[in-house]
Design a protein that fits this description.
Layout (H helix, E strand, L loop, with lengths): L41 H8 L11 E8 L5 E5 L11 H12 L5 E9 L4 E7 L6 H14 L5 E7 L34 E7 L9 E5 L6 E4 L2 E3 L8 E4 L7 E5 L1 E3 L3 E7 L3 H15 L3 E8 L6 E9 H11 L2 H16 L5 H14 L23 H12 L5 H6 L24 E7 L2 E9 L5 E9 L6 H16 L2 H5 L2
Parallel strand pairs: 4-5, 5-14, 8-11, 9-12
Antiparallel strand pairs: 1-2, 1-18, 3-4, 3-15, 6-7, 6-13, 10-11, 16-17, 17-18
């Protein structure tokens, strides 16, 4: 990035001439703005400013703030109050909301109830985003052993814990059927996705074999794929008839002999999918289930089985792998617990605004609409994010869970391959954020002399991939981790 002052254009008037001056077209090109960073420490300012490449900034835009945790002093700022889309940095707000409302160590559950009078089994989702097929099988075993034998039952999936908005505000239509754009429900299974496995046929010219994990007869398949010996001319495509709101999986294109492909797809009406799969499991254990469906009304009955995961586990999964469903589940669960009504994102955001106010953040200066950051409507600033991170560090009860949930540079999560072999490796902990044209990184880092810094780096409005911009973030992270802060502040 150029750090010289903008060029000034001069106009000269020539009097007494009958000639017409022609201004070259190139003179109309606007000058590229200078870097407008600020810091009370010239050496630090220069060290960070020089990491910005002329070819990246502009046209891309960056907002950065670095704060000394011990004193709250801003060591470096670049557009700290400008609004950016935080992408999955939004999950930092969601984690703070869940820790405030649900609490560290609290349990998220999936519960089975039974009512003998109405012969009804209820499979009730209470916002647990981590329930797996194996755990649903355990619930089926416990349920089958608790029910009186020889009676037919009706199975209802109880989805009364959340509202019926199955997608987030501002999510784009073409997120389907990607697994990260799954549908939101309080009754969740395998992240509300299904894994589709495609194995080439042993005979060229024949369609490949298609299977699902978990195995189920609920999904239909349209398989017009072909097994080939030679190189692939038509790439294999695995999708779902999402335009028709259907759980019909489609397989098209070519796959070489002896090859396998797999992908995860979102499931339409995942609460119904989980309920019907549970019905299959009960039948396999000798329970007669006549009908099954999902219901937005609470299902009566006494509890016969439950499976739980801790909030800490769900929050760690949310932040380490940037899981969108966990984020939406935690936001809506927070609302359900606080307000005693069906959990909604909007009511969860009301709790978030309380937290922002307490942290000294003007709630009118940011916009939050979902828990995951998938929405294009979210807007925040580097200043707001660093204020939140400072406030979380000051909360001795909740901070250990919050800090433990963050990815570690070069070690795990979404930054497991970043900053390896630098002073940030195993040191820097931060949440990433990624959308088309957006990348973010916000968290904590220890300097070489043991001080903790809080930082937020937001970058957006670029074409192409995120790699060049992430490289800038990584260089800044490594610089902060490797510097002796005392020497910088008192050279």
């Amino acid at each position: 990035m150029r750090i010289t002052a903008p060029l000034l254009l001069a106009a000269a008037l020539i009097s007494g001439c009958a000639q017409t001056s022609i201004i070259p077209e190139s003179s109309h090109v606007s000058p590229i703005p200078a870097l407008t960073s600020s810091s009370g420490y010239p050496a630090l300012k220069t060290a960070i400013d020089t990491l910005f490449a002329d070819s990246l900034f502009p046209p891309a835009w960056a907002g950065i703030k670095i704060v000394r945790l011990k004193t709250g002093e801003a060591l470096y700022s670049l557009n700290p109050h400008h609004l950016f889309n935080p992408a999955s940095n939004q999950k930092l707000f969601t984690a703070a909301t869940a820790l405030r409302t649900i609490g560290p160590g609290s349990l998220l559950a999936t519960v089975v109830t039974a009512d003998s009078a109405s012969r009804t089994i209820g499979l009730k989702g209470l916002g647990d985003p981590l329930l797996s097929t194996a755990e649903l099988e355990s619930l089926a075993t416990l349920t089958a052993s608790a029910l009186p034998p020889g009676r037919p039952w009706i199975l209802k999936g109880d989805v009364s814990y959340f509202d019926d908005l199955y997608w987030g505000e501002g999510w784009t239509w073409d997120e389907e059927p990607a697994a990260y754009g799954m549908f939101i429900s309080p009754l969740m299974l395998n992240g509300n996705t299904v894994e589709v496995r495609v194995r080439a046929s042993a005979v060229p010219g024949q369609p490949p074999e298609v299977s699902f994990a978990p195995p189920t007869g609920q999904l239909r398949v349209e398989n017009v794929g072909v097994t080939v010996v030679d190189s692939v001319r038509n790439r294999l495509e695995i999708s779902r008839r999402w335009r028709e709101r259907s759980n019909t999986v489609t397989v098209r294109g070519e796959i070489p002999v002896s090859r396998t492909r797999s992908t995860s797809l979102s499931v339409w009406k995942p609460d119904m999918f989980a309920t019907q799969l549970f019905a299959e499991m009960l039948r396999n254990r000798g329970v007669t289930v006549d009908t099954s469906w999902a219901d937005t009304l609470a299902v009566p009955g006494i509890e016969v089985a439950r499976f739980t995961h801790t909030l800490d586990s769900a929050m760690t999964y949310m932040n380490k792998v940037s899981d969108n469903l966990s984020a939406e589940a935690l936001l809506k669960s927070s609302a359900a617990l606080r307000w005693g009504e069906r959990g909604s994102a909007a009511r969860g955001i009301d709790i978030l605004k309380e937290i922002l106010t307490e942290a000294g953040i003007d709630t009118l200066s940011v916009r939050a609409v979902d828990g995951s950051g998938l929405s294009r409507y979210n807007l925040t600033t580097a200043s707001a994010l660093t204020r939140l991170l400072v406030a979380m560090h000051q909360d001795s009860v909740r901070f250990p869970s919050f800090y433990a949930s963050l990815p570690i540079a070069g070690v795990d999560g979404t930054i497991d391959r970043r900053m390896r072999g630098t002073p940030a490796h195993g040191n820097l902990r931060a949440k990433t954020g990624t959308l088309n044209g957006v990348t973010a990184l916000s968290g904590y880092v220890q300097t070489a002399d043991g001080e903790t810094l809080v930082f937020s780096m937001l970058m957006q409005n670029f074409l192409g991939g995120t790699t060049p911009y992430r490289n800038v973030q990584d260089r800044i992270g490594a610089l902060l981790a490797g510097m002796n802060l005392k020497q910088v502040l008192d050279p």
